Amino acid sequence: MLLGPPGAGKGTQAQRLERAHGLVQLSTGDMLRATIASGSELGEKVKGIVESGALVPDDIIVSMIAERIEQPDCARGFILDGFPRTVGQAEALDAMLAEKGTGLDHVIEMSVEADVLVRRISGRYACAKCGAGYHDEFQKPAKEGVCDRCGSTEFSRRADDNAETVRKRLDAYEEQTAPLLPYYREKGLLRSVDAMAPIDQVTREIENVIAGGEH
Ligand code: ADP
Ligand code: AMP
């Protein structure tokens, strides 16, 4: 599990872990954006909430994850990115994993100073075709305007990556998600990496934590 505020680099590192370890990245934010894009009833229901920067109710998120982890591609393990975000979600996850006879191997806090987050989020974009993540300053494609991974020339920016919504998302993190740090610390699961460091160095720190073995 990667834990940290919006813009900490969870998605960036989850994409790398996915490729390096053959695990699946489970991003509830990505799932919600796909649901919204599908135009389903559920998508209509959550669209306003996501665009406002508030958290989607726990019951919706928990059933999304419960369904997702039953898929065959999750059998080898998965990387949780952006879930859980409340103590209620964390408790539901514990129950779900216990029922499957499994548990969390690593909970990794991506520790960052708040003042870099707005800059990271406002420069963020992704390949419209394969979802590879980029940044205007910190993670440019090797050839300008061409995705390193799939060669596409189309990119997109998220509707909620604007200054006003970002502030609300950071408040939601402080109020509702930060209590997960003591929750996992008390269980002896929490490890922290310096997410202020350049992207490659953060990857190395995470790999070191993982190499340290299961808890
Ligand atoms: P999160 O998933 O935690 O919201 P992202 O992984 O999307 O965050 O990262 C936010 C933006 O910051 C992206 O554009 C990414 O390229 C960039 N970024 C990620 N990690 C770092 C880092 N260590 N240093 C500088 N920029 C970073
Ligand atoms: P993210 O892509 O992780 O930055 O999430 C984008 C938005 O989706 C958040 O601001 C929330 O509105 C919503 N969201 C994503 N994951 C969760 C979650 N686990 N619980 C509640 N809301 C979520």
Question: Can you tell me about this structure?
Answer:
With 215 residues, this protein is of the alpha/beta class. Helices cover 47% and strands 13% of the residues. The protein contains nine helices and eight strands. The strands form three sheets. The chain has a three-stranded parallel beta sheet. Strands 6-5-7 form a three-stranded antiparallel beta sheet. A hairpin with a 5-residue loop joins strand 5 and strand 6 (133-135). Helix 1 packs across helix 9 (199-211), helix 2 packs across helix 3 (41-52) and helix 4 (58-68) packs parallel to helix 5 (87-99). It is globular. The two termini are 13 Å apart.
Please state the average pLDDT score: 96
Total beta-strand segments: 8
Compute the CA-based radius of gyration.
17 Å
Major sheet characteristics: 3 strands, parallel
Strand order of the largest sheet: 1-4-8
- Enumerate the spans where pLDDT stays under 50 for 5 or more consecutive residues: none
Structure described in brief:
By secondary structure, the protein is α/β, with parallel strands linked by helices.
Q: Which terms would index this structure?
A:
215 residues; alpha/beta; three-stranded parallel beta sheet; 47% helix; globular; binds adenosine-5'-diphosphate; binds adenosine monophosphate
